[in-house]
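pasting for ref
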Amino acid sequence: MTVNQPSQTNNPVVANVMRPLADAAGWMKLIGTLAIIYGVLMALTIIGLIIAWLPIWMGVLLNRAADQAREATAAGDEAHAITATSSLQTIFKVQGIIVAVVLALWAIGITIAIIAIVSNGS
């Protein structure tokens, strides 16, 4: 869809493609709400305050994606489908970055621990 074209509605293909997401919207909303609560609880700690915005943001994106998936399925609306899948795309990117950073920090921590154990043993 280009910027100049109006959004298509009542498109059965869009409705059918978005149906699995719409069916999972309840779970998406649950996980999104739990992520927001988790972020708020993280914000109560000093260290958690630094990164608490990430789960809150992801929770908001999940709730938005759930709403948009339901709208896309109900109306067969291409614009809602694009918004829903764009939100999910952002969630996957952020989650991938978080996992990569955590794994890197674990690797660094394990390496430091091994070096400390070896250097103390000799």
